Amino acid sequence: MKRVQVIIGLLIIVMVFHISPIRAQNQLKLSGYLQTDQRILLQSPNDWVWNENRLSLQLDKKVSGKAKFHSEVWLRNMGIPNISTASDLYNLNIIDPWNLEIREAYVQVTGFLSKNLDMAIGRQRIAWGTADKMNPTDNLNPYDFEDILDFGRHRGSDALNLNYWFNTNTSLQAVYIPFFRPDNLPVGMFANIFTMPFMLPAGLSVNRFSDSVQMPQYNFRESSTYGVKLKGLIGGFNVSISYVWGWNGLPDDIYNTFIPVDTTGSVNIRSTLTFHRHHIFGADLAGNIGGVGIWAEAALFLPANDVVMTNNLSALYPTSPVPVTQQTTLLKKQAYVKYIVGGDYFFANGGYLNVQFLHGFVNEVGRGNLNDYLFARYEQKFLNDKLNVIPLSGAIIVSDWKEVKNNYAVAYMPEVSYMATDNAELSVSAVFFKGKGDNLFANLNGYNMLVFKVKYSF
Amino acid sequence: MKTIQFKMLTIGVLLLAGLTGTVNAQDATTIMKKVDDVMYAPKDMRAVNKIVLTDRNGRTDTREATIAQMGTNYRIFRFTKPASQAGISVLSLPDDVMYLYMPAFGKVRRISSSIKNQNFAGTDFSYDDMESKPLTEKYNGKLLKTEGNTYVLQLTPKSQRSAYSKVIMSVNKENFYPVEMQFYDRGNHEIKVAQYTFIKIGKYWNTEKITLKDLKKDHTTSMIMSDVKYDTGLTKNDFTVRKLQE
């Protein structure tokens, strides 16, 4: 039924807008791509861990000389059949899971009210920051962590986006996002990558775990995110400063109720999760020094309040005259800074080198909890850019410099891609993880895999 | 006496040689200035640029882009075909400032000027070849000969960072448009040859087609210009990051 509705919807769009594949003024232009992304574990028996078939449809229309409409919709067949009961066989969404997602849909008006003012309204991606994919200042849109290997992916937000241009290089941007939407968490084999180990009081073990998430009130004051950014060109460098009053997209576990189920210390835990507000002051720059492209970006996060986790153990001590609770501060109301510096260089032989140093990954919050990451990529193009070999691509992570040998991770992702035709690209890559300790990629230890992608653009 | 006569003859020959050299240099500079005057006469230009890549087996790939240019320092290049590259745009500004817009990432990125080391978008043209810098700014010239309806000049790059040791350029005597350019690497081997055809549009001579062959790779790139419009009133405001994202 859902599929029929989608097909009817698409047909209506076609009829209403009169889609033309030919680029023409005031006609709706349809473009996009079809991509399959398949991953298997390298370790026998080579489990299939990722199956994604994505149809991205992009519609563009110039409404007038000043206004344009843009949208991107993903129609995806995602995942592997997960059938556990006979009744599942009646459910096509379990046998053949798929979903539809509006990534962007907005109208942009250039010279709105004033010739220097641009406005975009609707669901849109507002990408901030000068670094490559890892952007500490890019905090307006929620992160899309679904595929953790697709670093830096965000979803669009329903937003009002105003840009005032003082001159050709200087602009002031103001963004208002009325509804808070949290980050979506990784799926499939990556599902537990952000799960922190739960520290239980001594002698207890978990029988059952349940949780509830408290979302902010959806009103003008509570759920909104605001951002402003001033951009300019100083001494040949693109620079900007920014401020965001927003929400952290990943939830905090703030309240756990322990309920004993037997006398052996087995407990059920009910957790309450919520999100915290923070101020984010950002700055970035990008430019060239001696032919080397360089960039730097930093964001100072100031949580609005302390985030405290309370464990309610009262049920374990029924005779106690007062509630028995433990409190742990997860995040203090004190500023912490994430930053990234990097550079790139194009070699005459078709090579390209990109190196970045990051302090504080997207999921890390609070002073003392930020790890260091060194990312490097070297690409070599052949056959007039048709063949792209990436022998070096990966990251080194250190979570404790005092004891590196037990607190590190290495991710290595070599890749080869080939443009078989003008619009068809094939790529094969391998992904290796190795590490120890408590960090993002160490959690993926042993999940080495082979990735095969085909992308056809139209 | 004989010694004095020989000395005078020697001085005479040297003076003549020096004078000839000066005349040649002046001729070359004059010709190069005239070429610059012809090639950069329009205030601005808009056009559609079709790029055909042909490999040694005769297989072709086609790309298409729109181009807008003002003077020699301002240019926006937007790919419209193939679909895999459509929307990718490059803005070039003075002082080697370049920006790249990739619709898939939804933002403009400053590009390292070292990209000039590489060929442009998989073509046989380097970014240096694509640069609209006047010949007199890029090269020192020397008139080698006149041959039929052409002047043949040797151009030596002023920049030590150039990939070329010299360029031999043939220029049409009547309209001062380049007919052919042969590019030599630092080892003095001919590595590329470009041939130009041109037509007059309104009061300006216009490159209709450039065919550049990479002799080592046996690979050819043809750039064919169409829908060319001159002096459309472009300003600096048309060459901004704001415009790049439109």
Tell me the number of structural domains of chain A: 2
**What are the secondary-structure elements of chain B, in order, as H or E?**
HEEEEEEHHEEEEEEEH
Number of domains of chain B: 1
CATH class of chain B: Mainly Beta
* CATH architecture tag of chain B: Clam
**Order of secondary-structure elements of chain A:** HEEEEHEEEEEEEEEEEEEEEEEEEEE
The chain-level mean pLDDT of chain A equals 91
Flag low-confidence runs of chain A: 14-24
Blueprint (SSEs and pairs):
The complex is a heterodimer of chains A (458) and B (246).
Chain A: H1 2-17, E1 19-20, E2 28-41, E3 48-62, E4 67-78, H2 92-95, E5 98-110, E6 117-124, E7 157-165, E8 171-177, E9 205-214, E10 225-234, E11 237-247, E12 252-260, E13 266-274, E14 277-289, E15 292-303, E16 307-312, E17 325-331, E18 336-346, E19 351-359, E20 372-382, E21 387-398, E22 408-412, E23 415-419, E24 424-436, E25 449-457
Parallel strand pairs in A: 1-2, 9-13, 12-16
Antiparallel strand pairs in A: 2-3, 2-25, 3-4, 4-5, 5-6, 6-7, 7-8, 8-10, 10-11, 11-14, 12-13, 14-15, 15-18, 16-17, 18-19, 19-20, 20-21, 21-22, 21-23, 22-24, 23-24, 24-25
Chain B: H1 2-39, E1 44-54, E2 60-70, E3 74-81, E4 89-93, E5 97-102, E6 107-111, H2 127-130, H3 135-138, E7 139-147, E8 150-157, E9 164-172, E10 178-185, E11 190-201, E12 204-214, E13 219-230, H4 241-244
Antiparallel strand pairs in B: 1-2, 1-13, 2-3, 3-4, 4-5, 5-6, 7-8, 8-9, 9-10, 10-11, 11-12, 12-13
Q: What's this, in brief?
A:
The complex is a heterodimer of chains A (458) and B (246). Chain A has 458 residues and is mostly beta strands. Chain A is 4% helix and 53% strand.
Task: Describe this entry's structure for a reader.
The complex is a heterodimer of chains A (458) and B (246). In chain A, 4% of the residues lie in helices and 53% in strands. With 458 residues, chain A is mainly β. Chain A folds into two domains: 111-349, no CATH class; 371-458. In chain A, β18 and β19 form a beta hairpin. Chain B is α+β, with helices and mostly antiparallel strands and 246 residues long. Chain B is 20% helix and 47% strand. Chain B has four helices and 13 strands. Chain B has helices at 2-39, 127-130, 135-138, 241-244, and strands at 44-54, 60-70, 74-81, 89-93, 97-102, 107-111, 139-147, 150-157, 164-172, 178-185, 190-201, 204-214, 219-230. Chain B has a 13-stranded antiparallel sheet with strand order 6-5-4-3-2-1-13-12-11-10-9-8-7. The radius of gyration of chain B is 21 Å and the shape is globular. Chain A binds chain B through residues 23, 31, 33, 68, 110, 118, 125-128, 130, 132, 163, 165, 168-169, 171, 236, 238, 286-288, 291-293, 295, 343-348, 350, 381, 384-386, 419, 422-423, 425, 455, 457-458, and chain B through 53, 55, 61-63, 80-84, 86, 95-97, 105-107, 109-119, 121-124, 163, 217, 219, 236-237, 239-242, 246.
